[in-house]
Amino acid sequence: MSDIERKPPPQAPAAAGRKQLAGNARPLVGKAKRRLNFWSRVFVHFDTDSGSPRKAALRIVETVVFVLAAVLLSRWIAPDDPFGISAQFPWIWLVPAILAMRYGSAIGVTAVATMLAGWYGLSYQSGENASQAVVSAAQAFPQPYFLGGLILTLLCGQFAEVWNARSRRLRAINAYLDERLTMLTKNHFLLRLSHERLEQDLLSKPLTLRESLDRLRSLTLTQTMLDPARMPAGDAFLQIMVQSCQVEAASLYACDATGRVLPDPLASVGKVSEFAGDDPLVKYALEQRKLAHVQTESVNQSLRNQSRYLVCAPLENFDGKLFGMLLVEKIPFVALNEDTLQLMSVLIDYYADGVEVGTTSRSILQQLPTCPPELAVDLVRLHHLKRNTGIDSSLVALVFGDDDLSRDMFDQIRRLKRAADVVWTYKSGGRNVLMTLLPLAGAAAVDGYLMRVETVSHAQFGNKFLSNYAEAHTAAIGVEDPSRLLPNLVERCAV
User: Tens digit of pLDDT for each residue in 420-470?
Assistant: First the structure.
């Protein structure tokens, strides 16, 4: 090869300039990130939504320090007029306004009181008598100045309180929608896996995955109502794990009120050994509160080699309380892959949802055995959401007659279910009842739902009024306890 071929082509001046600018920009970007991280760490200690006494004391201390620092700085800059009474604009009032805009009216009033104390302190002359100094300060007190500053601070505080209330409502709604989205994602994943397994081994398995899970959930709810203190359907759960995830040896353990795993297994499959509480994989799963396996990268390789278990999965309820632990000791090597672990995680969550429906949901299911568990669980969640944030939700029951046109209307309106709604259909005294749970829906949303149903009835059945064929009953969630709200609505529909 010649020298001309081996010599690299010269860089263009523009490209070299861009590389130099990029190299110079990297330190600036790093400094900006470090600066943002510093302020984020500082302001995380002053959360505006926290109501703990410690956070309230920190806010008061922060307010007093900032206002006194501003007064001293103004004293140093303008000794003759530190509060800017004779200036074109009193810049010192920006400090109480900013504090009120961040924390609310109460902190704003504290800032104004601190400024008032600072004004009296600066007005006090050391050479005068104390009583005379107080009298002279009171005579020279600028009432319009402090009144205007107080009004400005209260306006900023009122704006902050309204904005924080809206932010809390939006966060509560988003948390509920995220939870529903997670449940829908799990159900969608289970449906897809059910179809795949049905195509692969329909002849070898009499039941699909979805049918097995439905049986497991019904068995779980039944045993939970009979004995709430015991973890139900452990053997059935392990059998589904064997069929779906090819588990060969596994055991299911319960936890006490403190989250400590009890040594005696509730159910087991295959040849299992005694429980090892000091196993590193068990400790990691309990600390992280998530499924851990021998291929977890965040666990040290030496610790993974010391573990006797292949998979450790904690079982948690809706409140994040640990009530059980699944330990898998033997599984085929080819089955320990990402798809199997993901399926195992979804099955565990599904089983946990069936176990921990809550005391109130269990009471509803005992009174109304045909009520869907999803409706009972969601009713309790929305009741807590109403009590905590004031967000309305509603129940709407439509009672149809038993004639042909009423049955057609019942079937047509039942298909109008939205993705977020939960529907319960049953018969009561020869009549069809369609009960719909409308999450995050107040009185106006209920009127809109009934109007939409009326419009569909007019379009489908030729200007037939819904009120001639169905009775509408509504109930607002949060007015009374869910264990009484739903049975009372059922009684109203039966009248």
Answer: 788 999 988 888 899 999 888 888 888 888 888 888 887 777 767 777 778
What does the alpha-carbon distance between residue 412 and residue 39 come to, in Å, rounded to a whole number?
57
Average pLDDT in the 280-284 region?
A: 88
Percent share of the chain, pLDDT over 70: 78
Ramachandran angles phi, psi of 395, nearest 5°: -115, 135
